[in-house]
Design goal:
Radius of gyration: 22 Å
Number of strands: 15
Structural class: alpha/beta
Strand content: 15-25%
Keywords: Lipoprotein, Signal, Transport
Protein name: Lipoprotein
Number of domains: 2
InterPro entries: SBP
CATH architecture of the largest domain: 3-Layer(aba) Sandwich
Pfam family, one: SBP_bac_1
CATH topology of the largest domain: D-Maltodextrin-Binding Protein, domain 2
Family: Belongs to the bacterial solute-binding protein 1 family.
Shape: globular
CATH superfamily of the largest domain: Periplasmic binding protein-like II
Distance between the termini: 42 Å
Number of helices: 17
């Protein structure tokens, strides 16, 4: 087996044998088919990758895996170039929302048959599966997910007499208003946290953009999307988050760590930053899924994570499919989820993370997960992001419908190929 790390400006090959010198690699050169796999930096620990490679090669003695770890910086251009050249690796990890842009090149293998027949695609998390499906063909196979939850300060909840997390929006607003007292903020919600807004829009039945007879159009000005923005405005007012900045400016974990913020919306991993800044909060943090409009289910959330794709021109199609099947199957999904605190790719595997409070809350929300619009041009929208100034305008008193129309028109322009 081989595990390689590719650096941003140069490629440094670090094989497993480098740990004990440059001896021969077991299995290499004995006639086994070498399957090259690109995984992204920090998506999986070195120990997980080693376990997987060893386990896979033991079960598939005619296959040698050559795993190369890639940097996120510049990966889009690198994958696009590889697909065009015909000299791509056999399996590639990509961001779930990136699948449409690679599928547009015509260079991906359609795995619809395997998905329906062998892999139980009906149980996949929608936020991973939907962006991997382009024009009815499944090019991206869900690997792992992560999404936002509400991180809360147990002491502040207790002081306010709140004994359990809210189960719906009405309770959430009422609890947050109670928590927003004196020097404490009920919630720290920056004005341009557009991923959180997206969830509220989806809960109302709206969309950020929709396809109409082959053309994509921004739809933030629909009645449903406007209701989502109205709820965001109500919630954001129950704290002192900046109206003209996103959650990174300043880093919301640093604000929360001061001990005067009752809630923030983030992935559970943000707790590490909170605890680093204020170790006294280590045992004071709790988690719950973002509440939905009713008790029936949690609110919709944007699902981040990764899918696996196979280049259409791979010389090792059968072997590449076997690798994808293994990585996305129950055994290695359970291992990856418990090792990395991820949400597994199927709702039926959510029980595997029940012992991890933050991840368990994330998994409950992931069942209502969504992804950004499935347009190959969506990256251009995120690069400019007209949604952010729209949100600030509404929070500062602009007419919501007019501001939404301006943002929607810009999204439409950016989505036009």
């Amino acid at each position: 087996m081989r595990i390689h790390r590719a650096l941003a400006c140069s490629v440094a090959f670090v094989s497993v044998c480098a740990l004990s010198g440059c001896g021969a690699i077991p299995g290499f050169g004995d006639g086994a088919d070498k399957v090259t796999v690109w995984l992204m930096k920090d998506s999986a620990s070195d120990d997980f990758v080693k376990r997987f490679v060893q386990g896979f090669e033991k079960e598939h003695k005619d296959v040698e895996l050559d795993v190369r770890i890639q940097e996120w910086t510049g990966i889009g251009e690198k994958i696009t170039a590889a697909l065009k050249s015909g000299d791509a690796p056999d399996v590639i990890e990509v961001g779930n929302t990136q699948v449409p842009q690679y599928a547009a090149s015509g260079g991906l293998l359609d795995m619809t048959l395997e998905s329906l027949r062998d892999w139980g695609s009906d149980a996949w998390l929608p936020g991973l599966a939907q962006p991997g499906n382009v024009d009815g063909m499944q090019y991206g196979i869900p690997w792992y997910a992560a999404n936002r939850v509400v991180i809360y300060n147990k002491d502040l909840f207790g002081a306010a007499g709140i004994t359990r997390p809210p189960k719906n929006r009405a309770e959430w607003l009422a609890d947050t208003a109670k928590l927003n007292s004196g020097s404490a903020q009920g919630i720290y919600l920056a004005g341009q946290d557009w991923y959180t807004l997206a969830g509220f829009v989806w809960d109302e039945g709206g969309e950020l953009a929709q396809e109409d007879t082959g053309d994509w159009k921004g739809t933030l000005d629909s009645p449903a999307a406007l209701r989502g923005m109205q709820f965001y405005k109500q919630l954001q007012a129950l704290g002192r988050g900046p109206r003209n900045a996103d959650e990174a400016t300043p880093p919301q974990a640093d604000v929360f760590a001061k001990g005067k913020v009752a809630q923030m919306i983030a992935v559970p991993g943000a707790a590490k930053a909170i605890q680093k800044a204020n170790p006294r909060l280590a045992d004071k943090l709790g988690y719950f899924p973002i509440p939905g409009p009713t008790d029936a289910r949690p609110g919709a959330v944007f699902t981040g994570g990764s899918d696996l794709i196979i280049p259409r021109k791979t010389a090792h199609r059968a072997e590449a499919v076997q690798v994808v099947a293994a990585l996305t199957g129950e055994k290695w999904q359970t291992d990856l989820a418990t090792t990395m605190n991820y949400v597994p790719n199927k709702s039926t595997l959510a029980h595997t993370v029940e012992g991890q409070a933050g991840t368990a809350a994330m998994a409950r929300g992931a069942a209502q997960g969504r992804a950004t619009p499935n347009s190959p041009q969506w990256a251009a929208v995120e690069a400019e992001n007209p949604i952010k100034p729209y949100m600030t305008a509404v929070l500062e008193g602009a007419d919501p419908k007019q501001a939404a129309k301006t943002a929607s028109d810009r999204i439409t322009t950016l989505l036009f190929p």
